[in-house]
Amino acid sequence: MSVETLLLYFFAATSLAGGVLMLVARHPMRVALALISSMLSLGAIYAILGVHVIAVFQVLIYVGAVMVFMVYVIMLLDVRDASFLDRYGRAIVPSVAAAALLAMALGVAVSRGRIITAAELSGLHPGRSPAEFGVQPFSVEFLEGYWLHFELTSVLLLAAVVAAIAVIKAGRRHDG
Amino acid sequence: MRMDLLTLIVLLPLAGFFLNGLLGPRLGKGFVSVVGCGLPILAFFATLRAFTQLQASDAGALAETAYTWAIVGDFRFEIAFWFDRLSALMTLIVTGVGSLIHIYSTGYMKDDPGYARYFSYLNLFLFFMLLLVLGRSLLVCFVGWEGVGLASYLLIGFWFDDPAKAAAGKKAFITNRIGDAGFLLGMFLIYHALGTLDFDAINAAFNGPVAPAVSASLVGLLLFVGATGKSAQIPLHVWLPDAMAGPTPVSALIHAATMVTAGIYLVARLNGLYLHAPEASQVIAVVGLATAFFAATIAVVQTDIKKVLAYSTVSQLGLMFLALGVGAYGVAVFHVYTHAFFKACLFLGAGSVIHAMSGEQDIRKMGGLAKKIPITFVTFAVATAAIAGIPPLAGFFSKDEILWFAFASEYGGSPVLWALASFSALLTSFYMFRLLWLTFLTPSRMDHEAEHHVHESPVSMTGVLVVLAILSAIGGFFHVYDFLEPVMPMPVENEALEHLKLPLIGIAIAVAFAGLAGAFLVYRGGLATAERLQQRFAGLHRVLSGKYYVDELYEAVLGKPLHWVSEHVFLNVGDRTLIDGSLHGLTSLAQRTAGRLSRVETGNLQFYLLLAVIGVALSLAWMWGNG
Amino acid sequence: MDRTQLLLTLSIALFCLGLVGVMIRRNALVMLMCMELMLNGVVLSLVTFAAHSGTLSGAVLVFLVFVVAAAEIGIAIPIVLLLARQRHTLDVGAYSGLKG
Predict the structure, then answer these.
(1) Which of A41, B182, B255, C71 is most buried, taking the most CB atoms under 10 A from its CB?
(2) How far is the alpha carbon of C49 from chain B, nearest alpha carbon, in Å?
(3) What is the pLDDT of residue A69?
(4) What pLDDT does B460 receive?
(5) Which residues contact B406 (CB under 8 A, 6 or more apart)?
(6) Domain boundaries, given as residue ranges, for chain C
(7) Chain A closest CA to B603's CA: distance in Å?
């Protein structure tokens, strides 16, 4: 049992605990903090795996932008309403059962399946070799091979900005 | 479609129907009169031309195929026309008397708002009647048969705003349809046995050496059922008196001269079949005689001028069927020919009287019209004498031949038939002269109002009356049965009775004059004697005026049970419970199901997501479970 | 168990926890956060595969998922804001206008 594996188990437990806390906590702020901790654990796991670029992006984008935004909104709104007192909806047991069913199905698939090795994968895509997960190799791969996706995502972000403005306008009209 | 002479004859009135029906209301009465009368007159001249062609040719008949309707396997259904001596005679009567009545109608219906509609229906009738008499096969004949029934319905119920008149139209049509069921069955049997529906082929098959594989009597009876409906014999006679609700020229044309003779035409046309069907012929003779007798008894007590003539028509038709029943087909057609003249003259004369009396039809309120409307009186008197059988007018010749063959025919004639027929002839003479006296010759019993307005009819009406009266007088000298000999042979007479021919003629003349004398004696001074007789024979009078209660019988035995079944079984159970119920049931089932299914839509997002997750999980499990 | 299997199991567990959270919790913002947890679970499985097989394309795909997630949250939160302003509550039980 190397240190690596131990750390892996530790952070896995942490992220799982964060997930469970999310379901249980009453105040949305606590839920947000649990999610943040879960995301940070995941970032750690990515780092242990050696995918450093993604670990950095996880912390920067996910925790640093998305969750901060979420925290801002939680602080903005009055969260002590009906959903504060009564946390859960009506169909608790069926929901848990359905999710468990899904988990079992997925688990069975994973256990039965065989993960393709790098060698086979490179056989499928001749010309690409496994590389270090640093920023530079990542950028080269990204902008060389996936520049179409890059353009499309920029369009998507543009759409998101426009939509955000439209929502503000609609909100203003509603208020006024 | 080849446009030959016979097809032209048939299509001319049809063109009149369309022209008058579609353009008539817009183009006015002048147009309608010219088209409505002109086209039948043209058809009459076309018939004369065809007739000369027929006489000039060697063949027994002219045949034309207008249109092949369908070819089913070996059989060709064609619209074909056949012009032999019988069809020639019938077509001449139909177009000739028909044209005269069209001309009369221009005067009689002058003030009616439905003028164009009337003439279009009248032309339509002429078209169908010509199809009937010119048709080569039972099929074309049947088309005409149904069509004249339709035209009759349309014309009887012409003033349809009056529900009683509309009901009379319906009664005529429905009673006809009952007879038509028999006609159809007969037609099916013939087609099944012989594979053909052509008249000439049917007659040849039955006259031929090998008897066809169907009972001639059965077919004959079934076709006679159809004839019973169309020609108003017992038990389907009930529609004809009610049909007097239509305009009087309609009664003259359809219910005296042409349509009602369709039944006689059918039997006469199929004489080859009926000569080999002794049982059916006997039934025809008996039914005809019974009808003649009963109708004559009812006519004696009728008080409506048109009803008397209606029952008289039924009675005369009965005599014609009597002749057919004893095998004297040519003689029956002879009587059709003379009857067309004098009955049309009588009906049109009655129309003239009604016109003069401003709509009054009750003869108890008439009298003394002879001096006021002389032309109508003279023509009516001539026609009355003709129907009574006074020699040498037309009716004498035809009726006398019928009586002789009823007595002496080897094919079912007997003294009993002759005696009852003679008694009916006596009654006929009696009630017709009764009608003449009460309407024209007795002192006036008219309302003062009506008396002031009495006037002779216009020339369009009286002219036709004169023509028909002349034909009633001299028509009998043309011996139709001799003319028709090649087509329908005369029946074999009992040689032993030959010596009785002259005495029987004497008795017939005596009977005619006895009727005249009786009517004179009873009705000479008006209604007084008649009323005393009525009180003495009150019960008999009640039965006769109630027309033997046949209508009431039909209503009780057929009408009420059918009505009950319709109401309780078909309406309540069938229609409301089953059909409406199943429809309502289906809709309410759909609504309830929809109501229950819509409970899925809770509006709750998380519920929807739960359903989606369950679905995904199940499908994944199934997919991976099955590899 | 080897680390790939462990991480995949963790990924499944996070995904299903997030799913349960979305189905159960009544607060709209908490629902959104649970959806983020689901996304994280998926991303973890992607990274696991990328690390196991050594392919960079996996990492690129993960990056694209981040972008999409950011765009999504940028829209979803304003929508929830508007909704909350209209109904004066964050309780999803009150958002059943499509009932029936």
Answers:
(1) B255
(2) 20
(3) 94
(4) 84
(5) B285, B289, B322, B323, B326, B413, B414, B417, B418, B421
(6) 3-93
(7) 13
Cβ within 8 Å of residue B563, ≥6 positions away: none
Are A83 and C92 a contacting pair at CB < 8 A?
yes
Q: Would you kindly state where each structural domain of chain B is located, as residue ranges?
A: 1-276, 277-545
Q: Which chains touch C (3 or more CB pairs under 8 A)?
A: A, B
Judge: B617–A98 Cβ closer than 8 Å, yes or no.
yes
Q: Could you read off the pLDDT of A76-113 as tens digits, one per residue? A: 888 788 878 888 888 889 999 999 989 988 888 888 77
CB contact under 8 A, A103 and C12: yes
Domain count, chain A: 2
Angle, helix C3-24 to helix C28-53, in steps of 10 degrees: 170
Q: What is the mean pLDDT of chain A?
A: 86
Q: Which two tokens stand for residue B345?
A: 């003259």
Higher pLDDT, A45 or B528: A45
Residue position matching structure tokens 């929508």: C79
Instruction: Tell me which amino acid residue B62 is.
Output: L
For an interface test with B, give the residue of C20, C23, C30, C83 to mutate (most B CBs within 10 A): C23
User: Where is mean pLDDT largest: A115-124, B223-232, B447-456?
Assistant: B223-232
Domain assignment present for residue A54? The answer is yes
Nearest Cα to Cα of residue B409 among B527, B522, B329: B329
Residues of B in contact with A109 (CB under 8 A): 620, 624
**CB within 8 Å: A102 and B620:** yes
Closest to B323 measured CA to CA, from B405, B424, B397: B405
CA distance A105 to chain B (A): 5
CA atoms of A32 and A37, how far apart (whole Å): 9
**A82 and A153 assigned to the same domain:** no
List chain B residues with CB under 8 Å of A110.
none
Task: Determine the structural domain holding residue A44 and report its residue range.
Answer: 1-86
B-chain residue closest to C19, CA distance: B613
For C3-93, the fitting CATH number among 1.20.1270.10, 3.40.1480.10, 1.10.287.3510, 3.10.105.10 is: 1.10.287.3510
A101 interfacial to chain C (CB closer than 8 Å): no
Q: Which of B604, B607, B613 sits opposite A102 (nearest CB)?
A: B613
pLDDT of residue B2: 42
State the pTM of this model.
0.70
- Per the structure block, which two tokens stand in for A83? 């959903």
Q: Write out chain C residues lying below 8 Å of B617, CB-based.
A: none
Contact list in C for residue B601 (CB cut-off 8 A) is 98-100
